[in-house]
Amino acid sequence: MERKSVMRGRWFIKNIDGDFDGIAERFGVEKMVARVLVNRGLNTDEEIFEYLNAEKGELADPALMYDLEKACEIINEKIEAGKKIRIIGDYDVDGVCSTFILYDYFRKIGADISYVIPHRVQDGYGINIDIVDKAKADGVDTVITCDNGIAAYEQVKHAKEIGLTVIITDHHDIPINNELPPADTVTDPKREDCNYPFKGLCGAGVAYQLINCYAKKYGKDVGVLKQTIEKTYLEFVALATVCDVMELVRENRIIVKKGLKAIYNTENIGLRAMLEVSGLAEKEGISVYHIGFILGPMINASGRLESAVKAIKLFLEDDKDKALEEARELQELNNERKSITEQSLIKATEIAESPEYINDKVLVILVPDCHESIAGIVAGKIKERFYKPTLIFTYAERGIKGSGRSIEDYNMFEEISKCAECFSKFGGHPMAAGFSLKGENTAEQLEVFSALRRKLNENVKLTEEELRPKIYFDMELPPYYVSESLINNLAKLAPYGNGNKAPTFARRNMFVSTYRILGKNENVMKLELADEEDGQLYNAIWYGDAKAFEQYLLSKDEKKLSVIYSPEINEYRGVKKIQLKIEEYR
Q1: More exposed terminus of the chain, fewer Cβ within 10 Å: N or C?
Q2: How confident is the model at residue 224 (pLDDT cuts 50, 70, 90)?
Q3: pLDDT of residue 3
Q4: In 390-509, which residue ranges form alpha helices assigned H by DSSP?
């Protein structure tokens, strides 16, 4: 398949003024680090101190969450009365971790408790009528949702009508009409009447604060309980926070900063088995990358291709040999998922690059044999490759369904809402959406698919400029300013992720002295770059489509390259060298 370079992005410097000298002096960091701190929106000494000392930070009092104390009171009454309680979670990492936290904690204190995870294909997202009816038939008295429920008005109404007690814990946006489900309690930090100071927790974060609130209210040794809860469950909140792509600021930064160490030192037999089979147990530590691209996909694979219950059972396992066997099963599922994704990605790329599609500003692509659970992954990768809003459709069990991923200047939910007549069901937000096409049969749905593609491209107002990604960097910095001391200083700003990007710097017009392509997939390029001021050679590395990078270099009259980079230490056979990790080039 022919490789094509992605159009280069628009570069913007974060030029925010601040007291760089004062910050550097007061906090013992280099001036360039002080500039990065200001670029992160940290303006007061208190904010900077909390940011730099996140591992010592504490979460707010859980009782500040609306309805959380009342939820604890109800749960305690039900436990004492011997009533059956059922947790209703979700099939992604956040849903799995939320369910595990609640189930494991309450079963250990004697609750008659069970859990249900909806099947991604058969049930869809969150609590539904069938799950509610099954709970009633099983003699369940109380259901607790986690990572879902805030928009489930009809389902909760039905549960109440048949006599169930319903406790909602969620973190998703409140419905546009502000109509909350008629549950006994509804806890969601995003409620307007919720006094909890941080609104950005994931579902597992809310579940974690529920058990903290319960322990504080009904535990016998609150101090010991708090330490035990943090030691046992904070690592799962960190997993969920990263994998749900929450912003790594404030309380989430505390959770992930502490949680990375907790994962590495975990005493959970199932999670330890995952570290061992993935090779992470041999690393010097766990990073956000390891969670997002190794552990998270293993957990998610169970929910995508089979049942997310597999992952929960692994975390509950107390036999090391069984745990290793179950962890290998997750790894195999994830390998299968990667293979399926790659096959679908190749087909989607070929369609996107075809003459029929090459001029479409909105990519609406049908990949017939794409597994419906990975349509969103494929849409995200196609969107990243071509930087165009992308909708991937496939033949699902119940007709043609799809997932979409968008770019900064295109509100996907708003745009597909203008074509509502094409869908039997749709939902989402500005950057992502899910949908099912109308039609009594495949032929009718294919006609609707063609009409949708035409309408979205007729309606689109994206300019050529907006079809180039915005790339922000912290400052222009010649590489001769980079030292091991600076890199160590910058390391204090980790963990990096959504809302807290790794510091990046720009250098223009560097001369490409040498380069070579590595990796069986040709996805690594090592370069030597000479700076025009001092003439020194600097080691650099690019992770991505190396052949496309090479084509770009060969298309230039001069071997000059401007780069946005992040500096790092590359250690090989005990020798440490400074290396520029290229994030963007032109």
Answers
A1: N
A2: low
A3: 38
A4: 412-417, 442-459, 484-490
The per-residue pLDDT for range 484-493, each reduced to its tens digit, is 999 999 999 9
Please answer whether residues 150 and 170 qualify as being in contact, where contact means their C-beta atoms are separated by less than 8 angstroms: yes
Return the exposure string of 289-309: e unless at least 16 CB atoms fall within 10 Å of the residue's CB, then b.
ebbbebbbbbbbbbbbbbbbb
Which residue type is seen at 21? D
Average pLDDT over residues 538-564: 91
In whole angstroms, what is the distance from residue 518 CA to residue 522 CA?
Answer: 6
- Whole-angstrom Cα distance, residue 534 to residue 28? 29
Give residue 43's pLDDT band: very low, low, confident or very high (50, 70, 90).
confident
The C-alpha atoms of residue 488 and residue 320 are separated, in whole angstroms, by: 37
pLDDT at 179 over 60: yes
- Residue spans of alpha helices (H) in 306-319: 309-316
Contact 238, 262 (CB under 8 A): yes
Q: Are strands 399-405 and 524-530 parallel, antiparallel or unpaired?
A: unpaired
Q: Which helix (H) or strand (E) holds 187?
A: strand 185-187
Q: Are 152 and 181 in contact (CB under 8 A)?
A: yes
Task: Give the Cα separation of 143 and 167 in Å (integer).
Answer: 6
d(Cα 183, Cα 186) in Å, to the nearest integer?
Answer: 6
Cα gap 143→127, rounded to integer Å:
10
